[in-house]
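Re: the request from the purification team.
They wanted to know what the chain is likely to look like in 3D before they choose a buffer screen. I agreed to run a prediction and write the result into the notebook, where they can find it.
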Amino acid sequence: MQRVFQALSSTARRKILAYLAHSELTAGEIASRFEMSKPSISQHLSILEAAGLIAGEKRGQFIHYRLVSENLTNTLNEFVQQVCPVSRPLKRESATLADAKRRETATE
């Protein structure tokens, strides 16, 4: 439980969770949304993964990250994000990305 609270204590990590709400993203796609170094993003991803909030899967040369939806903490975080005005634009962007990826996959 301590790891979960540590993971959620960071605004950047909460934003990463919001970005992953509707779509898998690579570390590079996540990093492009922040003004911080890629090693810093990797550290945040490692903390989220160690807490069991996200999972990474290597495909080719990229690691694709997704929420671990069966994690109770993510369920509670989803609820909080519904009422938190800061998360709404991030979740909209996540949904837009997911739609774009579905369209791209459908045309292949």
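For the purification team: Helices lie at 2-8, 11-19, 27-31, 38-50, 72-83, 87-107.
Please add any questions underneath this entry.
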